[in-house]
Amino acid sequence: MVQSVELLLDDELDDAVRREWQLLFDAGLPSQARHRGASNRPHVTLAVADDFTDLDARIGTLPVPLFPIRLGPLVVFRGRHATLARLVIPSAELLDAHTAVASLVGTARGVRPHTAPGHWTPHVTLARRMTDDELGSAIELLHSEPGILVGETSALRRWDGDGKVEWLVGHAAQNP
């Protein structure tokens, strides 16, 4: 299992993404809505590693980056199956938050290179493990949804996939 540091979204943006999850679910397609755990919520992953435990005290000192965020067009990540997501449109605030987290957790065991600065694609996942046919149906279904979703970040959280627990980290530091 893995551990991560993630940005959460404000209530309105969270609701907008959940509506897209529900559209997929209602159409019988793979969707993040299928995961009913309390910790399953729309988020932007900033860093992933095998273990952040030794860094939790330092992670807890991070300021919570509160800033406007825009979710843009659909993006597909290919592997054995496809993952469908909304691309997060990069902003200076988003890149600064990512750089701060990446530099802090860079020494963690098993840091994933795809979350390193210069290799990271910020996104919010809509569905995982999609076949090509499901992917085509999902894109067609979501085609009529708004092209850009606008909101703000609301919190920074730590997710421990081994323990299946989450907690908020850092302290509020709203940008002027």
Topology summary:
Blueprint: E1 3-9, H1 11-26, E2 43-49, H2 56-59, E3 63-66, E4 68-78, E5 82-89, H3 92-105, E6 123-130, H4 132-142, E7 149-160, E8 165-169, E9 171-174
Structural class: alpha+beta
CATH class descriptor? Alpha Beta
* Percent helix range: 25-40%
CATH superfamily annotation: Cyclic phosphodiesterase
Shape: globular
Number of helices: 4
What is the CATH T-level topology? Cyclic Phosphodiesterase, Chain: A
What do these coordinates show?
It is a single chain. The protein has 176 residues and is α+β, with helices and mostly antiparallel strands. Helix content is 26%, strand content 38%. The chain has four helices and nine strands; from the N terminus they run βαβαβββαβαβββ. The strands form two sheets. Strands 1, 2, 4, 5, 6, 7 and 8 form a seven-stranded antiparallel sheet that branches. Strands 3-9 form a two-stranded parallel sheet. It starts with a strand and ends with a strand. This is 2'-5' RNA ligase superfamily protein. InterPro entries: Cyclic_Pdiesterase. It holds the Pfam family 2_5_RNA_ligase2.
Q: What brief labels describe this structure?
A:
176 residues; alpha+beta; Cyclic Phosphodiesterase, Chain: A; 9 strands; 38% strand; Cyclic_Pdiesterase; 2'-5' RNA ligase superfamily protein
The gist of it:
The chain has 176 residues and is of the alpha+beta class.
